[in-house]
Amino acid sequence: MNQDSGVKEMAAPGGLGSVQANNRIAKDRFILQQLVSKDFKLKYRRSFLGVLWSVLNPLLMMIIMSFVFSYMFRSTVENYPLYLIVGNITFTLMSDATNGGLRSIIDAASLLKKVKVDRWVFPVQKVLSAVVNFAFSLIAVVVVMLWYRVVPTWHLLWMFVGLFLLMLFCIGISLFIGALAVFFRDMMHLWGVLLTAWTYLTPIFWDLSLLTTNPSVPHYVIWVVKANPMYNYLDIMRCAIVYQTSPSGTVLLIAAISSLVSIILGLLVFRRTQHKFILYI
After folding, report:
1. Hey, where are the domains in the chain?
2. Is the pLDDT of residue 9 over 70?
3. What is the DSSP string of 68-95?
4. Burial of residue 161, with CB atoms counted within 10 A of its CB: 0-12 exposed, 13-18 middle, 19 or more buried
5. Is 84 exposed, middle or buried (0-12, 13-18, 19+ CB in 10 A)?
6. Among the residues of 108-157, which ranges form H helices?
7. Rg (Cα) of the chain, in Å, rounded?
8. How far is 219 from 224, CA to CA, in rounded Å?
């Protein structure tokens, strides 16, 4: 009788099982907040300019790259400096998030051996930390918009859609490569090579029209670029900030599918391997 009532209590809404689940969620949320805060403080510790670097860095990169490439792409890209800085900070968000996620489990080895905590917290925390830095980088974008007198419209709301989809994509990638790196340490070197190739495949400082208007470029090259998830995330962000228009349905669809595939693949690999982490870290 007592056993049956205990089972019913755990199964019932608001029962013991529900309380334990709520406590676990609250614990994970608290750990995430603490880890993100710790990352933020460590990043700017003993830095004279502190968080201002998150604003100055994209601005300086934009000035240098604009000086180098503006004469090449001015005729094909409208408002090139703004185009450039939006692409740069968006790709940097993905790069920082996945680089952090790659080492997240390995770097948390000492904590995982001492404290019982959900392992997915660490890759997700690295993505959230990258999003915080991205938010400060947006101040640089505002400065450029003011300089060139670009007035935002309601289309700016698309930025949050693009950011949400990109965040899901980065979480999935971080779960996937973070798990693989535990068993295959060569993944740390391989990911750097892949990111470099990905940088050149993505139109950060160049425009797709350079390929589409060139008859010597094979069609499959254009399709590869368009299928690149980062091309679509950048296009959503640029439509919202630079072009003041809505992204195309195709771009939104590919971006959403990329995020969905990434998060599903990341969760599958992570859940199937996480019980072995403690043996390899």
Report:
1. 44-280
2. no
3. HHHHHHTTTSTTHHHHHHHHHHHHHHHH
4. middle
5. buried
6. 109-114, 121-147
7. 22
8. 9
Are 179 and 270 a contacting pair, CB within 8 Å? yes
Q: Which two tokens stand for residue 130?
A: 């990258």
pTM of full prediction above 0.70: yes
pLDDT, one tens digit per residue, over 60-113 is: 777 777 766 766 665 567 788 899 999 999 999 999 999 999 999 998 888 787
pLDDT in tens, 233-251: 999 999 999 999 999 999 9
pLDDT in tens, 161-178: 999 999 999 999 999 999
Cα gap 253→178, rounded to integer Å: 27
How far apart (Å, rounded) are the C-alpha atoms in residues 90 and 81? 14
Distance from C-alpha of 57 to C-alpha of 1, rounded to nearest angstrom: 67
How many residues in the chain? 281
Take residue 238 and report the two structure tokens written for it.
């640029």
Q: What is the DSSP letter of 200?
A: H
